[in-house]
Design goal:
This protein is of the alpha+beta class. It has one helix and seven strands, in the order E-E-E-E-E-E-E-H.
Amino acid sequence: MLTQNAQTTLIPTARPPLVQIGPIYTCPVCGQQALGLVSWPVNPANPCKLDEWAAHIWYLRRKCGCRSRGRVARLGDCITPLEFTYDRSLTYEQRVEANIAALRAALALLATAEPVGAQAHPLGRGDTGQGGSNGNAP
């Protein structure tokens, strides 16, 4: 993110990373430390094709009050923001397929991220690769 000072010079400012390596995560909007992760709520009474991807769809629990949905794609201890479409001009099936495509793209991005443990998190220790984060294994 860039900001301008009074002399119109662009100054780089801190911005939460696109890919975060846990176990400590931050809000992708403001950078405040998150409370943890909550998994995708699978409803057996109302199944959806996205349920097949439940292990990779999570919600960032935050106390900051930012207006983003907090939905993230997760691969191991790596997360990245995940945006789903709500375009009502598409049929339900088309929206689901578009959302699965968005998830696949996010997972592909996560798969190219630095190996877990290779990068220390700015708010705490880097993961040692010894398991899930926040008590929730993927």
